[in-house]
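Predict the 3D structure for this chain.
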Amino acid sequence: MSERVTYKRLLRQFAAIGPYLREDLCEEGRYRFDCLSVCVSAKPAPDKREFWGWWLVLEQDDHHFRYHYQLGFYDADGVWLDKPVPKKHQAEVERTLNHFYKLLVDRLTVLECHLAPAKQVTNELAVTAA
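Done. Predicted structure below.
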């Protein structure tokens, strides 16, 4: 097995993936990511815009990681809400989630870590690196 994967090292590796890591919501053994996939309207000021997208929580047990995620709505107050994504935006939200998942798998593979869905992720909701 490779050297111990430290919290700081993981934060650096996850930050290198792109703008997904929410470092202020992370703690050792638990990492949070999200993606604002589709803007609802460009009319409001940038800090008041709403989006359709996803958030993902990654939990660590040594070199093993489990993830669970949720698709939903990011409101003007910066809060994720569990709302169904409109059909016309589903493909883009799923595309961004699958893109992120591939980057995450690649990064964890380099670190000799394993990734699997958490118990609450059902087969039909499991993301793929395809």
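The chain has a mean pLDDT of 91.
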